[in-house]
Write a structure and sequence with these properties.
This protein is of the alpha+beta class and 512 residues long. It folds into three domains: 198 residues, Hypothetical Protein Pfu-838710-001, CATH 2.40.320; 159 residues, CHAD domain, CATH 1.40.20; 142 residues, CHAD domain, CATH 1.40.20. Helix content is 54%, strand content 17%. Helix 7 crosses helix 12, helix 11 runs antiparallel to helix 12 and helix 12 runs antiparallel to helix 14. The longest helix is centred in the last third of the chain and has 39 residues. It is globular. The termini are far apart. The mean pLDDT is 93.
């Protein structure tokens, strides 16, 4: 059983763990009324990583620690700014499976083994406000590190850490840091004990993003596309633990990362060799499809459920809400199991490996070395022309299933066009950004229309089940009719939205 918490902290170099005369009096700083010393503890932690230090390279740490109040297994995952998420599991001899799985997107299935042992003598002080509430904890650690790979190497240093208590304003860190700086106490160069231990014992962690094995011209089309791909790969890797723990909106965000990667590899085939990227795109499509069942169910139940809640009570005939809940529980649980199964399959690990190789040893084509403007404009306009053709075809068709399919294809083309603009925004500026925003408005209308298509199919099946159970079908028919009306409105709105998005002069603005 694991539990997680968010920690927000900063580390500092400290002159000594034995003599605290260097530590300034923090009373009165940022609302601190008193500094209370709470004792000294001996901590002993063994850090685990892969042979090539994949966790450390991704700014994550995994340790088994004894001593102190939180002895056990700790997996720390990076968040934004000074924050990290710490996932804890009870102390045991072997690594808990839950933590192994949460680290999987970073280890990519490689064996985890002890790499560093860090022992610390920790003195703790609480920073307390006038009401006696603990604002933060200040610790001074006398650290002894020993490498466990190859020839044992020892290192020692002293460091200080200030960690906010839950609910404390992060501005306190700035106030404390200002007071420390005046006393000559500076921020630590290393972000963690492990990073410093690896550096001082000679086990240097790889840099993320890794130095490219093949030379990429700075500022070139290849450089811009690969920079964007790096960010999306990191997003996918970072979202994996959230999906495994069923965090809100995590499946949606992971699917978006998959789509952005797929679209970029497709749109910029002139930059990257498709013989290498097409198999990656196929695996990204597979992963997006496996995650899709869970995400589609989330959207579907929210759409139908919100409409049921909005109906006047006199129009809700029969156990509509109860049937909807039962239907969702069965489908949502199955969809989540499908997501988890996908994230534990060899195909997923192979995809992660191929993405790591792609960004480290990119299969560059000749145009990758060129200036990015013309390469990117051409890629964007190619996607835009495909979108225009699909919109035109959909608008020529009469309402019905064939038109629904055509509108869905146009929606996918709109996404590809919008994603094609994203790597180019730093190069093409406002024209690329505006096009992306305009296409997004088209995508929004087409997306809502597709949601009504899916919802109508689900409502028809729910109505059939209700009828078989001798329940009234009135409310299900009412809900179906509302979705049909929304779809008709979207189809009426589309021509005007498309006209606004496809203003003349697009090519000239992008190319200027």
């Amino acid at each position: 059983m694991t539990q997680s918490m968010r920690e927000t902290e900063r580390k500092y170099d400290a002159p000594s763990a034995d003599d605290d005369s260097w530590l300034p009096d923090l009373t009165g700083v940022g609302g601190i009324a008193s500094v209370v010393q709470t004792g000294t503890h001996e901590l002993d932690a063994v850090y685990h990583d892969t042979a090539d230090l994949r966790l450390a390279g991704a700014s994550a740490t995994l340790r088994r620690r004894t001593g102190g109040a939180d002895a056990g297994w700790h997996l720390k995952l990076p968040l934004s700014g000074d924050s990290r998420e710490e996932v804890q599991a009870p102390l045991s001899d072997s690594l808990p499976d839950d933590l192994r799985e949460l680290a999987l997107s970073r280890t990519r299935g490689a064996e985890l083994r002890p790499v560093v042992r860090i022992r610390s003598t920790r003195t703790t002080r609480q920073l307390v406000d006038p009401d006696g509430t603990v604002l933060a904890e200040l610790t001074v650690d006398g650290v002894r590190a020993q490498s466990l790979s190859g020839t044992p190497t020892l290192a020692a240093w002293t460091e200080m850490e200030v960690e906010l208590a839950e609910g404390t304003d992060p501005a306190l860190l700035d106030a404390v840091e200002k007071a420390l700086a005046k006393s000559g106490v500076d921020r630590a160069a290393s972000p963690s004990k492990l990073a410093r231990a690896l550096e001082t014992t000679g086990l240097q962690a790889p840099r993320i993003p890794a130095p490219r094995a093949e030379k990429v011209v700075s500022g070139s089309a290849g450089d811009k596309v690969l920079g964007y791909l790096d960010r999306q790969v990191r997003a996918l890797v970072n979202l994996d633990p959230a999906v495994r723990r069923h965090r809100p909106d995590s499946v949606h965000k992971m699917r978006v990362a998959c789509r952005r990667l797929r679209s970029t590899l497709r749109s910029y085939r002139s930059v990257l060799d498709r013989e290498v990227t097409d198999p990656i795109r196929a695996n990204l499509k597979w992963l997006g499809g496996e995650l899709g069942a869970e995400r589609d169910q989330e959207v579907l139940v929210k759409r139908i459920g919100s409409r049921v809640d909005a109906l006047p009570p006199e129009l809700v005939l029969g156990p509509v809400a109860a049937r909807l809940r039962a239907w969702n529980v069965a489908r949502a649980d199955e969809a989540h199991r499908r997501s988890l199964e996908a994230l534990n399959k060899p195909r997923y690990l192979a995809l992660l490996d191929s993405l790591a190789t792609l960004t480290n040893r990119p299969p560059l084509r000749r145009k990758a070395a060129r200036a990015p403007e013309k390469v990117m404009v051409k890629a964007i306009l190619k996607e835009y022309d495909r979108l225009a053709a699909r919109i035109a075809r959909a608008l020529e068709l009469s309402p019905g299933k064939e038109r629904d399919v055509a509108l869905h294809e146009a929606r996918k083309a709109a996404k590809k066009t919008r994603y094609a603009t994203e790597p180019a925004r730093s190069v093409l500026g406002k024209p690329a950004k505006r096009l992306g925003e305009r296409v997004k408005s088209v995508q929004k209308v087409l997306g809502e229309h597709q949601d009504t298509v899916v919802a109508r199919d689900a409502l028809r099946k729910l109505a059939v089940s209700a009828h078989a159970a001798a329940e009234p079908g009135f409310t299900w028919g009412l809900l179906y009719g509302w979705q049909q009306a929304v779809a008709a409105e979207d189809e009426r709105d589309l021509p005007a939205v498309w006209t606004k998005a496809s203003k003349p002069g697009l090519r000239k603005k992008l190319s200027s």
